[in-house]
Amino acid sequence: MNIGILGLGTVGGGVVNVLNNNKSEIFARTGEQINITHGAVKSISEPRICEDGNINITEDAFSVANNPDVDVVLELIGGTTIAKDLVITAINNNKHVITANKALIATHGNELLTLAKQKNVHLLFEAAVAGGIPILKSLEQGLSANKIELVAGIINGTGNFILTEMRDKGRDFTDVLKEAQALGYAEADPTFDVEGIDAAHKLAILASIAYGCELQMDKVSTEGISDISGEDVSFATELNYSIKHLGIAKKVNGELQMRVHPTLIPKTQLLANVDGVMNAVLVKGNAVGPTLYYGAGAGAEATASAVIADLVDIIKGTVSHDVFGWKQLIEIPSCNPGNVESVFYLRLLAADKPGVLADITAILAKHNISVESVIQKQIDQQNNAHIAIITNSVKTADLQAATTEIQTHEFIQDTIKIIHVENLD
Questions:
Q1: Is the pLDDT of residue 378 over 90?
Q2: Which of 148, 201, 296, 400 is the S-S candidate for 302 at Cβ 3.0 to 4.6 Å?
Q3: CATH superfamily to which 135-296 belongs
Q4: According to DSSP H, which parts of 41-94 are helical?
Q5: Which of the residues 95, 202, 251, 284 is marked catalytic?
Q6: Span 358-370, pLDDT tens digits
Q7: Cβ(384)–Cβ(352) under 8 Å?
Q8: Does the annotation mark 202 as catalytic?
Q9: How many Cβ atoms are within 10 Å of 99's Cβ, its own excluded?
C-alpha cells in the first residue's frame, strides 16, 4: 500500500518514524507492507525529524493528491482552506484520506464525509481528538451497545497545563501562558487554546459520534480560561474542587448540550487529577457506566499512533462507510444555553460592610437560588472582600438574571465571576 503524506512536520515526521520503528509489528497485524512513497512539504530545504531518503518530496501538495500511484493520503498540514481542497481532490481521485485536522472535520466534516461515502472511500480522523487516545474508536465500536449519557473531557493540553501550574505553584495566567509558549505547548497566537475554540472543535466531533447527529460546531457554547484568576484557583482548592477546562456533551430532555468552559469538579473525581498537558475523556454509558480514557493529547508519536491506527483499519477492512459510525444520523435539537441547569460558583469583590452578604443572598433567593456554601475573605486596605459562593442547581438564565441585578449595586467593586460546577455523577 502506497501512502502520500501532506506535511512532514511534527505529526507527519512522527508517522514516518513510528512506521519505521514498528514495521514488524504493523506487518504482523496487517500482512501488508506500508510504503511512504510521496510527501509534500512547504520547503524542501527545511530540516525534518524523520528519514526521507525513500520518499519523493515535493512542494506541490496537489501533485500527491492527484498521483495515481498513491492509495491513501494523510492530510497533516492543518487549517481549513488548502487542506479542505486537498482532501476533496484526494477523495474525488478515489483515495482514502486520514487526517489529524480537528478544525477541518468540525467545520466541514458533514460535507467531506458525505463525499467520501459517495465515492466509496474512507475519511478517518481518530487523531483529530485527544491525540493518541483512541476515544473515537471507543465511542464508535467499544461502546456501541450503550446509550451515551455523558461525554466530558479535558481535551486541550495547553489549557490544562496552565490551570495545573496556577493551582500547584500559585502562578498567574499570563506568566504560565508565556512559559507554555516557550515550551511549544501554545502557539504565538494562543487564542484557539485558551479561549476554548480548539476544545470546541473536538467536542463537536465527540458529540456527533456519541449521539449520531451531524456536526454542529456552531452550537457549541464556548468560554475560555483567560479570565481565571489566582483567587478562583485558591477558592476552588479551599472548597475541595479543582478547576479544569472541560468539554461537555450530553442529551437532556431530548436536547443536546455542547459546552466548553472552566469547570469546578470535586477533587475526588479522576478527571480532577489529570494534570499538565495530559488529556482525559470521561464517557458514561447506560450499560457500562463511567469509563475514563487518559493519555497524551498531542505530540509527534502519540498523534502518529492514532493516524497509523486508522491506516491499519483501512488495510484490514474493519471500517464502514457509515457517517460517524451510524447507519442513520439522528436530528437532535440543540439546547438553549440559558436552559442549561448547573451548580455554579460565584466570586464577588464587594465592600466589606454589614448587610452586604445578606443583600446578595436576598437577591439570589428572589431568583429561587439558594446558597450551598460561602467563603469571605478581606483582601485590601480599602475594606473590600472576596466572597465565594456555591449555589444549588439552577438554570443558567436565572443565575444570569440574579448576577446582573447584584452587579448594579454600588457595593460590588468588580465584575462577578461565574463558573460552572459539575459533579459528573
A1: no
A2: 296
A3: Dihydrodipicolinate Reductase; domain 2 (3.30.360.10)
A4: 61-65, 82-92
A5: 202
A6: 999 999 999 999 9
A7: yes
A8: yes
A9: 28
